[in-house]
Structure formats: C-alpha cells, structure tokens
Amino acid sequence: MSDRFLGALASQALPLCGGLYFTLLGYRKIGKRLGEDPGLDARHARFGFLLRSLGPMIMIISGCIFVYDAFVRR
User: What is the pLDDT of residues 35-63, one digit of tens each?
Assistant: First the structure.
C-alpha cells in the first residue's frame, strides 16, 4: 500500500466510524432500547431523524473524500 492510500485511510477512518455510530444510534441498534429511559426516549424523538439522516451522509462524504485523496488527487 502506498503512503497516500494509508494517509487517506487514516484521515477518513474517524468520520466513517462516527457516521456509522450515529446511524446505529439513530436506528437504536446500539444504546438503550425504547422504554428503558424516558429522557433518552424524548431526546431520540427529537433528534432521531437527524441521526438517521446525517449518519449515512457523513459516511458517504467520508468515502468520497477517501476515494478522491487516495486515487484521484496527485
């Protein structure tokens, strides 16, 4: 692997993992389940859509930046 590839991978690993975490949190695949914490349920009702929509966007943008940095930019 080239240095450019590893550098691009390292710089985009954190946003990719963050986007995955936000998506899983938005769909309640991780964290407390529905009904366990009323405060969390209220926050999820308010911000769940934001987590479910921005999480995949962050992953897509991170993937595009990775491809650009690793393969396109000279």
Answer: 999 999 999 999 999 999 999 999 999 99
Domain of residue 10, residue span: 3-72
5-8: which pairs have CB atoms within 8 A and are 24 or more residues apart? 5/70, 7/69, 8/65, 8/66, 8/69, 8/70
Residue 48 confidence (pLDDT): 94
Number of domains in the chain: 1
CA proximity to 62, closest of 26, 9, 1, 15:
15
Cα separation of 12 and 16, whole Å? 6
- Tell me the pTM: 0.86
